Amino acid sequence: MTVYRRTIKPQNIKFILDTILSINNLSKNYGKLKAVNNLSFTINKGHVYGILGPNGSGKSTTLGIVLNVVNKSGGTYSWFDGTITTHEALKKVGAIIERPNFYPYMSAYKNLRLVCKIKNIDESKINEKLELVGLLERKDSKFKTFSLGMKQRLAIASALLNDPEILILDEPTNGLDPQGIHQIRDIIRKIAGLGTTILLASHLLDEVEKVCSHVVVLRKGENLYTGRVDEMISTNGFFELKSENLEALAQCLEQHQVIKNIKITDDLLTAYLEDELSAKDLNEFLFQQGITLTHLVKRKESLEEQFLQLTNKTDH
Amino acid sequence: MIRLLHIEFIKLWNNRASKVLILAYFILLACIALIASIKFNIGPIKFHLAEQGIFNFPYIWHFNTYVAASLKFFLAVVIVSMMANEYSNKTIKQNLIDGLSKKEFIASKFLTVIVFSLISTIFVFIISLLLGYSFSSITEPYHVFSDLEYLIAFFIKLVGFFSFCLFLGILIKRSAFALGFLFVWFVGEKIAYGFLRFEIEATKNNWESITQFFPLESMSNLIKEPITRLGAAKELAKQVGEKYSFDYAVHFHELLIVVGWISIFTILSYTLLQKRDL
């Protein structure tokens, strides 16, 4: 990093080095249960992060600690390089955790006004954010009359009021119907497109896979993996193949050195790779052997398959 | 500070139940003036309460603060629920996540308590002044503005009682249970009072030196009942042959005890909020 300091202009350094949140050896015990165990990771500006883990793996507890509502048992965390206190930092953060919590007897607009007062910001953006989540027409309805999907969208509008440096979402689609899930994901994608740093906690793998570039995988409060989503497991992927003569295809593939194993289901043959092999090379090889393919797709394991591999590996 | 009060004001004023109770409280305070209209005309006996001297300066300060203090339960309900509702709606969690510090959260509640008490005190001051000037036979400024320590006692008494309510709201998190607990506490104090009185009186005569430290007892000690101080009541006692002499004054050490409780309740509320996971 010191090299960067000397060679890059000051305004660029800031962008590169901006750490929004760093967590060091964080722990939380509930009696004997270790909800979070020695967790460390860093959130840098401009990426979309996912915290992935099954229910009860410590996602919400971790977020609760950094959001100042759960007391930690050990370790440290710091917002924005520790330059400001946690509650000052939280004014620059937008967060929704678990269920949307608002005053049921107040209208959507008034609830957001209260949030503006707490964050000490101007009230001019309320309508803009309500528009973004599609609640502008219902702004004068009381919160208690909202459906869960609308409540969740209001929570997102509230979290965006201050144009936050980072948006934290804990299970934002939990309990919603498919339409609601779709709306929320659209909104998240829209926000991510604007360059906002996002931290998304979820047990839904496809959610993380669709939105996030980086992932922290938790299991029983322990960190299993931190890094880019596509580097989570070094895998060479697999081919899905079809041919009119499936048996010949299988025999031919068994002789190929790079193919690890073969699985046939109905008329589809799946060939797992031991090493890197491009679709073009495979096609050429099979053609030379006199086999023509009717179907050729190269795929990588989905995050779900990788995730299960990762969490099962350490299952005792 | 204004920001914290404004936050609390938005929360309270948009809640219909709170709004009705607050309005009812201040309307009832104003209704103290109606006592003046109590008149009996039973044959030869004519009784007009306002002419019995209850509105005489400076006695009126004692009488009105005592009567007004009994209305504090209306606000107690508001204060317990403004705290407990934050837990049941889980909005306390959202407030903290939005960037309110735990200290600011307690401060906004405590400042509201101070403002309620202050407004009540000013309200009682104005009403008493108006009533006094209409009915009092004594209107020299020297008498009008003596015994004003009853207003200070009234203010401290309200702040003390409301901080207790605030603490119970945080401790118990449910308004109905917190109010129930307040009542149980009251009964408990009375039982302890009675017990100490009968057990200890036999040997030593200092049971009051212990009971004066009970929170609710210390608050009620601030303004003693004013009825027996009335001319008519004294007259009656003389006829029956009973002699009594009470100390009606507001004592500095009694104020100090209640201020002590206010700090204890506020610090305990803050500690509780700090320690608890939400």
UniProtKB/TrEMBL annotation, chain B:
Pfam family, one: ABC2_membrane_2
Entry's transmembrane regions: 20-40, 60-84, 105-130, 150-170, 177-196, 255-273
Keywords: Membrane, Transmembrane, Transmembrane helix
Keyword Transmembrane helix set for record: yes
GO molecular function: ABC-type transporter activity
GO cellular component: plasma membrane
PANTHER family found in the cross-reference section: INTEGRAL MEMBRANE PROTEIN-RELATED, MEMBRANE PROTEIN
Name of the protein in question: ABC transporter permease
Gene source species: Aurantibacter aestuarii
